[in-house]
Fold:
Amino acid sequence: MSKYMGFRRKEWLFLLRWTVATAIGCALGSPFILGVTFLLGLGASGSHGDLTTLILFTVISFIIGISIGFGQTLALIGQVKQPVLWLPVSSVGGTLGGFLVGLVSLKSEYTAFVLSVAIPGIFLGIAQKVVLIKFLKKATGWIIANIISWILAQVLLIAGLANMDGNRLIIFLASGAVIGLITGINLTWLLKNFKKE
Structure:
């Protein structure tokens, strides 16, 4: 089993650490996301297409970027030089993605909703790739892995929030685990094959 996908034991342990750190980061950000949503009144009123929506998308995406970036930064310690760069880059990528979706929401709520499923993955992937190329010879598939993971995580999140009356923390953990597992497989493979010495 340890030879599966060409990963050795230490690589499987890194993948596990990355997945858990991403899931926990996502879950730790969830109370702040729910708090911002409540404070801006969108959870109750459902108003869309105004400045409040733009602020909501931007702030929530910042929270996502910083919380997941924090968890992933911890996972990178011991794997790469200067893992601390991951946190600000993830925060900026998340914020820019949310701001763009918020701008689109001023024109079309439906289009913004559709874009919000993939945009975090695109912008986080692009921003994080800037850091990856500092310690990898190439970062093949990183943006694609982010897009796929974010789409699947958002589908899980939306379905979970719509169909589960239980603990929302579990839904956020599961969504984060999806993101962590898919990006973690890609990153583990990249570190195994393209790490700069």
